[in-house]
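S.,

Sequence below, as promised.
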Amino acid sequence: MAIGEIAAQQAPEMLGDLQPLVELVQPLVVKASILVGGIFGVYLILIIVRVYYERKKVKLLYDIRYDLDQMNISQGVTSSRQKKGIFRKMIEFLITKPKEKRMAKELKKRAEKPAEKPKKKKRKKISKK
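The prediction came back faster than expected:
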């Protein structure tokens, strides 16, 4: 506290000739700090509200996923809660890999083959008499 009091007493003496300039700039600085502080406060409130609602959305999506999993289990359909073992993953990989290769070849052939243009039909001319 002693250092703060000494600095407060010596501040006007140190400024001396700059006092009129400080008095001119001080109201502008106060208004700018209120404006910046206000905008910052609004942004902070908006961020907090956004986080709150995003967390609610995520919770709702988890609940929906849980309900779908329960419905799938009751209907006898595989769900996201059923974990696949390493053997099932390998079998699925061996089955899907050749299918993907075949599809890639077909797409490549289609891309190389030029598209055929449909032939235009000739119209009959109607003669006027």
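The longest helix spans residues 19-75.

Coffee later?
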